[in-house]
Structure formats: structure tokens, C-alpha cells
Amino acid sequence: MASDLKAAITARYREIERLYNAGDYQVMAKECYTEDCKSVFSGHAIQSGHENIVKACETFKQEGVVTISSEVVDFSASPDGELAYCIVNLKSKKADGSEAKSFSNLLIWKKVNGVYLAHVDMSN
């Protein structure tokens, strides 16, 4: 089960990464996050909903973060598999290829119709 869970969570996170890097923030929010998702970002109030995920991505882009790459470093799930979490190290790059900020991300995933969707997204 652990290897299946890691593969599932890693694939879902890679989809977020792919859509972020493509600038498809609306699609990313709709296809990868629950409708009532929560975002908890350093220095900001807790936000809810897809529109706030999109706004956060647009803000990162305005700050110069155009691509991200990730490494899932820890993961686990509830006994019934309906909730899972992953801890991720993220690196980002600017348009010129230079490094932007690095940060850590914790996502709590909720299984909806058999697919893990990000329900809580926390970054430092």
C-alpha cells in the first residue's frame, strides 16, 4: 500500500506542478483541489476556495516564480485511505532560469470520487 500511495500522491503533485509551470492556474485549481480547499501561506490569512489558489499562483508569478520543481519527502494516509498528506520540498526558478525562492509545502489530500484532491495547502 505504501508504494501505491506514494505513486498516487506523487502523480497528483506532479500534475499540480505541470499545470503551474504551464500557467494553467484555473485548470490546476479545478482539477487538483477540492472546491472548499483551504490555503495557509506564510504571512497571509487562511483562504478558502479555488479563486484563492489562482490568486496565490498569480502572486508567485508576479514575484518572478515561473516554474517549480518538487520532491515529495514524506507521505501517509488515514487507515481508510480517504485522507492523505505529503510534505514536499519545492524549488522555483525565474524566467531567466535563475533560482527563485525555495520553500516547503504540506498538502492534505481528500479522496473525491476515487481521486486525491488537495484539500489543505500550507507553505512557508
From TrEMBL:
It holds the Pfam family DUF4440. Residues 9-116 form the DUF4440 domain. InterPro entries: DUF4440 (IPR027843), NTF2-like_dom_sf (IPR032710). This is Uncharacterized protein LOC100367130. It comes from Saccoglossus kowalevskii (Acorn worm). The gene is LOC100367130.
